Amino acid sequence: MLAAAVELADLVGLEAVTMRRLAQALDVTPMALYKHVTSRDELVDGMVDVVVARIEPVEPDPDWRRAVRRRVLSARARILEHPWATDAIITRTHASPTVLAYLDSLMGLMRAGGLSLDLLHNAMHALSTRMWGFTREVFPTQAVPDDPDEREAMYARFVAQYPNIVAMATGAAHAGAGCDSQAEFEFALDLLLDGVESQRLAAADRDNGTNLR
Q1: Which end of the chain is more exposed for a tag (fewer CB within 10 A), N or C?
Q2: Is the pLDDT of residue 88 over 80?
């Protein structure tokens, strides 16, 4: 049933997946579904579990950053297969055993790399949604008018009022093309992991200095 719900969401989107529509797809009555889940929310919880369970595990690695990176990028690959999963994960109100196991595995990779519990706590917060393979943008994209005169006037205002935005939009390597979301995700992930590692090394140096006194 859950696999069928995932396939249906892939076709029609999460919002369109109702108990009635899923029952039609399975050629059963809606009441038959309630033998397996008690509500649509529980159904979506199970759908998230299906996706999370498909995230590939990683082998132990002496470089904890490399291990975490592979695990997170595997999560991203699964999320990209099911675009609806992003909203499903964000709207969940509790963590299932499957979700908790994934979180625990990430923490285990970090602890094996020597992160203290305090640093581990901060690192998990810093990763935020990135641990699931996606990032929520914090700024909107400006809509461009269809009318050529209005579009030219808007550009002129932007050049005068927001020179740094215009400089980035026109001068960056991908100017005039769509952003490379995968490269941008990996850039931010690497930046975070390298920053956490620098904190770990700094703490180790402080501890060594204390022990030498």
Answers
A1: C
A2: yes
Question: Which tokens hold the place of 44?
Answer: 């979506």
Type of residue numbered 130: R
Are 23 and 14 spatial neighbours (Cβ–Cβ below 8 Å)?
no
CA pair distance 17, 20, nearest whole angstrom: 8
User: Which pLDDT tens digit goes with each residue over 61-86?
Assistant: 999 999 999 999 999 999 999 999 99
User: Judging by beta carbons within 10 Å of its beta carbon (0-12, 13-18, 19+), is residue 19 exposed, middle or buried?
Assistant: middle
Instruction: State the Cα–Cα distance between residues 124 and 34, nearest whole angstrom.
Output: 36
DSSP letters spanning 11-58: HH-STT--HHHHHHHHTS-HHHHTTT-SSHHHHHHHHHHHHHHTSPP-
- d(CA 174, CA 74) in angstroms, rounded, equals 25
In the predicted structure, residue 211 carries a pLDDT above the cut 70: no
DSSP conformation letters of 147-212: SHHHHHHHHHHHHHH-HHHHHHHHHSTTTTS---HHHHHHHHHHHHHHHHHHHHHHHHHHHHHHHH
- What is the C-alpha separation between 115 and 113, in angstroms, rounded? 6
Q: pLDDT for 119-166, tens place per residue?
A: 999 999 999 999 999 987 666 667 788 888 888 898 888 889 888 877
DSSP 3-state of 130: helix
